[in-house]
Amino acid sequence: MNRRSRMLRLAAWAGGGLLAGLVLAVGAVYLLASSGWGHKKVLSLTMHTLGPSVHGTLFVRRIDGNLLSGARLHGIALRDGKGRPFVLADSADLTYDVRSLLSPRIAIRKLVVYNPEIHILRYPGEAMWNYEAIFADTTNAPPDSTRVDRVTTLDSVRLVNARARVEFPWLPTPGLSPRARRAQVAEALSDTSSLLVRRVEGGMIRTMNFSSMHGGLSGIRFAPGTNAGSYFHVDSLAGRAQIFRGLTVITGMTGRIAQLPGRVEFDAPRLDLPGSHFSAAGVVSLPPKGDPRYDVTFDGKQVRFRDLLWLYPRFPRDAHGRLVLKMETHPDGLLYHARNALVVARGTRMSGSFGMLVGDTVRFTDVDIKADPLRIATVEEFLPTKLPVVGLHIGSAVVRGSRTAAARPRAATDTADTTGVRKLQDRRAR
C-alpha cells in the first residue's frame, strides 16, 4: 500500500512538473510574442539572425503584434553596403508562416506597406543592381551539393502611397563622332532633354520616378540572382510615372511583371491613362552599359494623344483616335512604328501606318497614310523638325514613303484637302 501510494505521488509530481513546464513554456512564448520586453528580444534575435544574409544594414525601430502569426514593423530601413537606401517605410503589417522565417524560403501570407520609398540603383562602374548586391548569395556550396535558392514568396502585397526611383548608367549612342557625342551629352544634360540625366562620380546616370502609387500585388516571388528571377502579378495599380521627363498618370493597371537576368518582361492586358485605354506587352533589356533597350508594343483602342506627351511631346494635344504603337531600340535611335492608326485632329483625319526613327536626325519609314482632309499646319505641329522631312512625302491625299526616299513635292491628285497641299508646295517653292 505504501509502495502504491509512493508511485501515485511520484506520478502526480511528474504530471504536475510536466504541466508546470508546459505552462511555463506557453507563458514564455506568450511573453515573447505579446509583451514589449519580448518584442525587443525577438527583434534583437531576428536582426542577429538575418544580419549575415543581408549585405548592408537592416534597421527596424520597433515591432508590435502577436509575433506567432504576424507583426507590425515601424521605422524600416534597408540600405546597401555603401549606405544608400533600398527600402524605407513608415510601417508595415505582416502575416506569415512563422516556421519559414529562419529558412532559405520565407513565406509571407500578407504584407501591407505604408509610405514606402524604393530605390533601385546601379551606378557607373557597378556590376550589380543594389538589390542584387544586398541579397547576393555568397555561400560557397560544394559543386556536387544541391543548392537551395534563397526565395521569399508573398501571397499578397498592398502598397499605400508608394514611391520608387530607378537610376542606372547613361552613355551616348555608340559610334558617334566626338563632335556628335559632345552634342548628345549636352542635350541629355539640358533642362529640355526628354531624359532625366545627371552627372555623378564616374559618369552619368538616368533617372525614372514613380510616385503616389496605390494598389495590390499577388503571387510574388522575390529571388534576385537566381535563374528563375523574380516576378509578381499586378492586381490593381494607379499612380504617377516619369519614365521620360514628361509626367504621366496611370489610372489603372493589371498584368504580370518578371525581372530576369539582364531584362524585364511584362504583359499588361489593361493600362489606363486619363483618356486612353491600352494593353501593353514587351521586353526592356538592361545591358551592363548604356541605356535600356526597348521592344514594347502598346495597343490602344481609345487614345487621347495628350496622354502620350510623355512619350513624344509633339503629339497634338487635341488629337484622338486609335493605334497599335511599337517602340523599339535600333542602332540609329528609337523607332516608333504605328500601324492600324486613326488620328483625328484639327482639320485632319489620317489613317494608315508609319514609322518614325528618332536619333540624331528624324526619319520616317514605311509611310502609308491616307488623309482626308489634310491640314498641313497640324502635320507640322506633330513633326519634330520643319518640312520637308526625309522619308515623308506630302503633296496629295495619299502619303507614302520609304526610309531612303528624299522628300519632294508630288502632284495633287483627287479629293484631298488640296488647299493645304498647295500651301505646302508654295512654301517649298519659296
Concise account of the structure shown:
Helices cover 20% and strands 46% of the residues. By secondary structure, it is of the alpha+beta class.
Can you walk through the features of this model?
The chain is an alpha+beta fold and 430 residues long. The protein is built from 6 helices and 19 strands. It has a 19-stranded mixed sheet that branches. The protein is globular and about 70 Å long.
Q: Give the CA-CA distance, first to last residue.
A: 130 Å
Helix percent band: 10-25%
Q: Can you tell me the overall shape?
A: globular
Count of beta strands: 19
Query: How many strands, which pairing sense, and closed or not: the largest β-sheet?
Result: 19 strands, mixed
Mean pLDDT: 76
Helix/strand/pairing category: alpha+beta
Number of helices: 6
Low-confidence stretches: 8-33, 41-45, 395-430
**Strand coverage percent:** over 45%
